[in-house]
Amino acid sequence: MKNFLLPVMLAGLMLKLHAQTTIERDPEIEQMVKEVSADSLKSYITSLVALGTRSTLSTNNDAMRGIGAARSWVLSKFNQFAQQSGGRLTAYIDTFTYQPDGKRINRPILMGNVIATLKGTDPNDNRVFLISGHLDNMRSNVMDSTGDAPGANDDGSGTSAVIECARVMSKHSFPATVIFISVSGEEQGLLGAYHNAEKSKKENLNIEAVLNNDIMGSNNSSETNIINNTQVRVFSEGLPFYELDKNAKSIRQFGVENDGKARQLARYVKEIGERYVDNLQVMMIYRNDRFLRGGDHTPYVENGYAAVRITEMNENYYHQHQDVRMQDSIQYGDLLRFMDFEYLRKNAGMNLANLANLAKAPTMPQNVKVDVRNLTNNTHLSWTAPLSGRVKGYYILVRETTSAFWQKKIFTQQTDVTLPYSKDNYFFAVQSVNETGNESLPVVPLAGR
Fold first, then answer.
1. Which of 112, 179, 301, 345 is 20 to 30 A from 204 in CA distance terms?
2. Residue 27 domain flag
3. How many domains does the chain have?
4. Whole-structure pTM over 0.85, yes or no?
């Protein structure tokens, strides 16, 4: 077995010499991000707000009001974009009936998720990358299905980001498949997301990443009155919910409790988002979600998929789950006027950059191992080529055990390397990369002999 210590050390030196240079952007992705429009996002949310209410319990039979009208409108937008896709984008409403549950469903209701699929061009690449937002909203009383509820930010913002990403990306082709989904039933208990996550699991859909967007378009907070449109949060679980009992021993043994699939995705979202969107800092939050609340990424996490939640930096609780009213000189209600569409443009562009970079990248390297046969102050890593995609080489990611982010990114064209860093003191991962610089998700090595 050859030793590639010297080439990798030289690569590390070159990394230091170029540490202050700007990371190059893929021109195609850069142009797509520029096409994301604040005006388009505003028009989508204006149309959604005009439907009066989008409560999951509202009418399915009115063409101008309620959840049924909302689903039909989103489907019409997806079908409009399909005309510019060369047959790659198709859309439909996945309907199912939900029975009364004694909680937030008081009668049998017809549910529906609006799904658009941008089919990948590589028949050997079965990866799927999914972006979601929820179509439904609520008043102060979650069972109120008739009163007006604008839902501009919660979650008109997430739904509009999904629609805008579909508009821009449908004009391009990618090796992997991208799914754009607007789900129903979030406010009633994440019902639409659970339906799709469980269905995807049964169908063995290879979903590698889920970007769930919920409440991402307003820039100010209640109580503290902080205004901030330069930061966005990405929530990710640490210890994996899925089959934790089977993996707990190895997680504890190797100290990788901060390296689950969701946390790796969050690091990726931060790096790629900040690469392509100016004046936006992606803040990693080490929680699956906020206190006392949940989001549509959770059903995917519970089914073993890498999923994160993307949310504005400072939430305003006067404008969430509130009837529109003036009380004690405070305007309540999720109204259009409280949106920051330039901020929403940046957050939607961050989503698009990640989806495009993932869908263009080769698949992940296979059989990534760290050699633990001997006690050494070097670290020997090995892997095999990805299953599909044109590979220029690989990035070896390195960070100290206390670091939240990858600190070094070393390029190599080898699949068997020795690094001058102790495996006791650092964490490692490996990514595949192609000629246009699109990286796969990172793979943390397993112990090998």
1. 112
2. no
3. 2
4. yes
